Amino acid sequence: MKTSLSRLLVSAAALTVFAGSASAAVINFTGGNVVRLSGPNQTTNASVNWDNVDYYEQNGFKLDFLTNAGSAGFATNIGNYYSAGNDVIHAHWATGNFGGVTAIEITKIGGGTFDLNYFILTSNTDTGGAPASGFERAFVEGFAANVSTGAAVMLPPEDWGFPATQIFLGSNFDAVDKVTFFVTNAVDCFGMDEFFIDE
Predict the structure, then answer these.
(1) What is the pTM of this model?
(2) With contact defined as beta carbons under 8 Å apart, do 74 and 92 qualify?
(3) Model confidence pLDDT, tens digit, residues 43-75
(4) Rounded-to-integer distance, Cα 41 and Cα 32, Å
(5) Which end of the chain has fewer beta carbons closer than 10 Å to its terminal beta carbon, N or C?
(6) Among candidates 31, 109, 102, which has minimal Cα distance to 65?
(7) Are 25 and 59 in contact (CB under 8 A)?
(8) Does an H or E element contain 3, and which?
(9) Percent of the chain scoring above 90 in pLDDT
(10) For residues 47 and 55, what is the distance between their CA atoms, to the nearest angstrom?
(11) What pLDDT is recorded for position 134?
């Protein structure tokens, strides 16, 4: 009887893990829908970089660039930006020399909550196309019903392009309905790759 109960509990645990992973999503910026402010929408393919991006959709999630009016253009990019055969997001902040991005938001298409577990930071530098100075102040913050789920997390400086830094997020990014990236000082380039959600 004890053995049968143990097997039943193990089977139930395995089923729970399997069921939980069914909603997991990886956003790697390849094969998704690029919605541009002008020109036709595009699909990322690890070859082309698309600029003038309004927002990007993949695996049930939306990454939205918020910009100053009329300032997208070169400021908002999705695709093979670093010419490394790897699609990424790359933004130029309004506080820097190249763009007008004021925030970047991630939400679930159709609404609902999610856990943002991990992503890769490819650029966070106050000098475009160059190493970081260490003075960059870029942050990520989670929200639920427009209420912050915890203190904003400051991201490390990151030289332009690859290699990149893995960013693991804590429990204040669980059960969020929006994640926002923003800066508080002069930062030029900001890039990211491979978001792991509900893992």
Answers:
(1) 0.88
(2) yes
(3) 999 999 999 999 999 999 999 999 987 666 789
(4) 10
(5) N
(6) 102
(7) yes
(8) helix 2-21
(9) 81
(10) 19
(11) 98
- The radius of gyration of the chain from alpha carbons, rounded to an integer in Å, stands at 18
Q: What totals of helices (H) and strands (E) does the chain contain, helices first?
A: 1, 16
Give CA–CA dist 15/32, Å, rounded: 30
Instruction: Tell me the two tokens of residue 118.
Output: 């991990």
How far apart (Å, rounded) are the C-alpha atoms in residues 43 and 149?
Answer: 33
Would you give the DSSP letter of residue 22?
A: T
And the tokens for 168?
């693991």
State both tokens at 148: 């912050």
Is 32 in contact with 60 (CB distance < 8 Å)? no
Amino acid at 125: T
Cβ contact 124:189 at 8 Å: yes
* DSSP state, residue 171: G
To the nearest 10°, the Cα dihedral for 158, 161, 165, 171?
Answer: 80
CB atoms within 10 A of CB 41: 12
pLDDT at residue 175 greater than cutoff 60: yes
- CA dihedral over 149, 155, 161, 162, signed as positive or negative: negative
